[in-house]
């Protein structure tokens, strides 16, 4: 008999954490209903369709393929049962802004990189990447090997013993075996200090640190343990899933339905009532949902502050106000006539000193005047996302959560970004745009009920990592659970898949 046979669970929110939890609970025998505010599943991994263009609205990097393989294997499936994968080459391209003398639009130098060219490709070919590093700093190629060896160890040990295995209490960390597991791991210090130990050149430091954007942190505040992201980047590879990341969400929803999960989209939840023996989940839809347990994949702060009565909240408003939040974003979704060479599928445009940009996110919140940003050109890999003769592109600038994004500010910043793209990549989009949509702080707050319009949730600072993140189990209301980026293991699509497994384990354990 399955552990949850005869029990019902309502999952609030169909982001990756909610989808993952729903699959594991249904596989354990529960009657699962997923209630989603918006018109499609995927949470931030929604798809935007306009006039023949299809954009991933949120996450667009398929990283840590081993996590997806493990997830589907838990149900005797593989990712390719639901979507195909293509490894990207290059993984990504970087344009550095201080490339005076570079001919706009010239081909990236690749193997012949020089420190005046400042356009580099990071590819699956390690030896090629090492030559690039050596061109900037003699001996940096060998240092890269050493750095990635440490990153691999951090990843393999960290994933097995500190990510897939949740440790929510201090006493969980007193296990003597942990000392053995942790021996040799880079646990202390910041990513800035750790990277500086290996590389002197600031541009190489940026290459090793850009993945912090996926964690919502800055180099001087993110723990050095997260150098494991470089193993993800350089060793595991970067892939594109058929249909984009929204296609992955659709695949997970298909799996969930095969397991018996019911989905109700366009059903914003307005209240969660706990009573003896179960819950009532009020929605704006046709009917409310009654269940024995509730799992919230909605924004954690929104769930506590808006959906629960004060007596059933774990944290007060001061707690949420005092947290450090990952950035929000200013996004331009652009359908463009013609090609956008030399932009790659994943392109980063970085100023020579990005400290100011991080300060304008975390220290003195304001709109960045010299932004670091990301360009995604999915049409470089997938012909189906744009009409023939056109390119599909979105620009993403990380900005501070809570900024005032009035129409006037957005218009001004839109022009700044397009001017910057033209100046620093040689690609002038301004007179070729046939479709344009904007998405920023206010939309993150409105569409996803995101606290202060953060795009990601709680940043991964030392005081907001592991047991210092909000728990999966509510300690104020029995039978209420949480999943997603606010919980452990944290931010990112793969982490949300794991969070769903951990949450389901708690539900099953408590029911047992």
UniProtKB/TrEMBL annotation:
Annotated source species: Halobacterium bonnevillei
GO BP of this protein: carotenoid biosynthetic process
- Domain Amine oxidase positions: 17-508
Print the keywords alphabetically.
Answer: Carotenoid biosynthesis, Oxidoreductase
Quote the protein name from its UniProt record.
Phytoene desaturase
Q: Which GO terms describe its molecular function?
A: oxidoreductase activity
Extract the Gene3D superfamilies matched here. FAD/NAD(P)-binding domain
Q: Which InterPro entries match?
A: Amino_oxidase, Carotenoid/retinoid_OxRdtase, FAD/NAD-bd_sf
PANTHER family attached to this UniProt entry: PHYTOENE DESATURASE (PTHR43734)
* Chain's gene name: crtI
**Which pathway, metabolic or otherwise, does it act in?**
Carotenoid biosynthesis
């Amino acid at each position: 008999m399955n552990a949850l046979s005869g029990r019902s669970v309502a999952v609030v929110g169909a982001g990756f954490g909610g989808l993952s939890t729903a699959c594991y609970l249904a596989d354990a025998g529960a009657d699962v209903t997923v209630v989603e505010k918006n018109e499609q599943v995927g949470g931030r991994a929604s798809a935007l369709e306009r006039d023949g263009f299809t954009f991933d609205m949120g996450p667009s990097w398929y990283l840590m393929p081993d996590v997806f393989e493990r997830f589907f294997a838990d149900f005797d499936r593989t990712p390719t049962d639901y979507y195909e994968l293509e490894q990207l080459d290059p993984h990504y391209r970087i344009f550095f802004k201080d490339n005076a003398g570079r001919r706009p639009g010239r081909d990236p130098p690749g193997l012949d990189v020089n420190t005046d060219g400042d356009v580099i490709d990071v590819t699956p070919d390690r030896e090629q990447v090492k030559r690039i590093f050596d061109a900037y700093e003699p001996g940096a190629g060998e240092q890269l090997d050493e750095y990635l060896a440490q990153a691999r160890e951090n990843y393999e040990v960290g994933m097995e013993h500190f990510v897939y295995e949740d440790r929510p209490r201090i006493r969980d960390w007193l296990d003597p075996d942990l000392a053995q597991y942790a021996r040799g791991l880079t646990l202390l210090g910041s990513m800035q200090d750790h990277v500086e130990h290996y590389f002197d050149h600031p541009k190489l430091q940026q290459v090793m640190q850009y993945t912090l954007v996926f964690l919502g942190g800055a180099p001087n505040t993110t723990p050095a343990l997260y150098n494991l992201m470089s193993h993800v980047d350089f060793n595991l590879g970067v892939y594109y899933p058929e249909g984009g990341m929204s296609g992955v969400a659709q695949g997970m929803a298909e799996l969930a339905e095969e397991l018996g999960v019911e989905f109700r989209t366009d059903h914003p939840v307005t209240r969660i009532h706990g009573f003896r023996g179960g819950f009532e989940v009020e929605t704006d839809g046709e009917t409310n949902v009654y269940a024995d347990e509730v799992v919230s994949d909605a924004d954690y702060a929104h769930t506590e502050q808006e959906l629960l009565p004060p007596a059933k909240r774990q944290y007060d408003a001061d707690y949420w106000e005092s947290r450090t939040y990952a950035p929000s974003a200013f996004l331009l979704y652009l359908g463009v006539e013609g090609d956008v060479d030399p932009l790659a599928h994943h392109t980063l445009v970085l100023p020579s000193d990005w400290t100011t940009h991080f300060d304008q996110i975390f220290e003195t919140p304001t709109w960045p005047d010299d932004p670091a940003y990301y360009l995604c050109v999915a049409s470089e890999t997938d012909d189906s996302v744009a009409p023939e003769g056109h390119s599909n592109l979105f620009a993403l600038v990380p900005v501070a959560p809570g900024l005032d994004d009035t129409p006037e500010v957005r218009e001004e910043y839109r022009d700044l970004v397009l001017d910057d793209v033209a100046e620093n990549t040689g690609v002038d989009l301004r007179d070729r745009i046939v479709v344009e949509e904007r998405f920023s702080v206010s939309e993150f707050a409105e569409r996803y009920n995101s606290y202060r319009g953060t795009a990601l949730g709680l940043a991964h600072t030392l005081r907001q990592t592991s047991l210092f993140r909000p728990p999966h189990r509510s300690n104020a209301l029995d039978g209420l659970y949480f999943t997603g980026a606010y919980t452990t293991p944290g931010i990112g699509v793969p982490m949300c898949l794991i969070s769903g497994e951990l949450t389901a384990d708690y539900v099953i354990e408590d029911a047992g």
